[in-house]
Write a structure and sequence with these properties.
The protein is mainly beta. Helices cover 0% and strands 15% of the residues. Strand 1 and strand 2 form a beta hairpin. The N and C termini lie far apart (58 Å). Belongs to the archaeal Rpo12/eukaryotic RPC10 RNA polymerase subunit family.
Length: 79
C-alpha cells in the first residue's frame, strides 16, 4: 500500500492538478469562476463580472460594457 493519504489522490506533490500549468500571473482557483474586469460605457466605472452575473453596470445600470485591455504584451506577425 502507498503511504500517501487518500485526499491527495490525483494531485502532484505540489498540490496542483496534473496536466495543467497556470499561466504567469494566474493563480490556481478551485471551483470559482474568475471575474473579468469590464468598463461601463456611460459612467466609466470598472466592474468585476463573473460568468453567471448579469452584464450590467453596478453603478448606473447601463448594459454597454467594454472589456478592459490586457496588460500582457500582444505581438502580431506581419506576413
Amino acid at each position: 500500500m502507498s503511504s500517501t493519504p487518500a485526499s491527495s489522490f490525483g494531485k502532484s506533490p505540489s498540490g496542483r492538478t496534473p496536466g495543467r500549468t497556470p499561466r504567469p500571473g494566474e493563480e490556481p482557483v478551485a471551483g470559482q469562476p474568475k471575474a473579468m474586469v469590464y468598463i461601463c460605457g456611460e459612467c466609466h466605472q470598472e466592474n468585476e463580472i463573473r460568468s453567471r452575473d448579469p452584464i450590467r453596470c453596478r453603478e448606473c445600470g447601463c448594459r454597454i460594457m467594454y472589456k478592459k485591455r490586457t496588460k500582457r504584451m500582444v505581438v502580431f506577425d506581419a506576413r
